[in-house]
Specification:
2 strands; mainly alpha; ABC transporter involved in vitamin B12 uptake, BtuC; single chain
Length: about 350
Amino acid sequence: MTTDLNSTQARTRKWLPAFLLKNGLYLFLVALLAIIIAINPSFFRMQNFVFIITQASTRIILALGVAGIIVLGCVDLSLGRNVGMSAIVSCSLLQAVSYSHRIYQYLPRLPLVLPILLVMVLCSLFLIAIALIVTKLKVEAFITSLGFALIIYGLESLYVDRVNDSSPIGGLDPVFSRFAQGAIEFQNFRIPYLILYAAIVVGIIWFIWNKTKLGKNMFAIGGNIEAATVSGVNIVLNSVVVFAIAGMLYGFGGALEGARTGSATNLLGEGYELDAIAACVVGGVSLRGGVGSVAGVVTGVLMFQIINYGLVYIGVNPYVQYSVKGLIIVLAITIDSQKYIKRK
């Protein structure tokens, strides 16, 4: 009897740490959610969750962009500034022709797709430059992307100051506004366009990650760059493509954010990169590279958004919200580091 008890205790001692390492963060987030619901049960309503998913849609698009870079074993701190640049440029080109304070008075009404493609290309060029510096010159992605974040912020601030005297860029074309704020309605059920865009992007990125050679190479580079090089993987080319895809998603997400909020300033997107990276880590994307899934990224973003909105919903002090967010990030990175040690 004593032997069986000791054996059970030994199995528990081995099983429990592994279980907590794998699921500890989710348990913490679920417990936090349970506290929010206990404080205000009205939070647990379908209307709130539809709102949360809608608000999370652009964040999902952005997080999927940076997730590919993280899987490569890099990091990108320019995400937020790219979002701001994209929003500013797209909003300035898609103002209503009847708006009295239109920036480009003599510019004809542009097709919606043209400015959006323009900002996607613009953000991709910034990201390609980062990728080339990282892969060709062997500069750390952290420092390179931080430098580019400052460069982009300076450029977008100069742009806003020149074209609009640092005032928010508003008066958007109704077509552009509906592009982000509209919805498909079935009787009493409403599906916002943003959710549809996020679902399409999720499907595309899932296919790239799981069904293409690029996806396979991306995980190989992040898992072991030396082994990938020996296997004949073109590190530079694959990295540039992954970074370029991230830039395209930043551009698209930034344009959506501008249209969703109805205006854009040089401060739009500030801090988005930290939220996106944290959501990726919460969703199981390892900062060490080579590990991650699209489903995990989506889950991480949704969990983060639920907690953020929940804390606001129950009236938690904004400074406390920052502390809770920081705690989640530290916990996620700690667990990620422990998982890496276990794999080693």
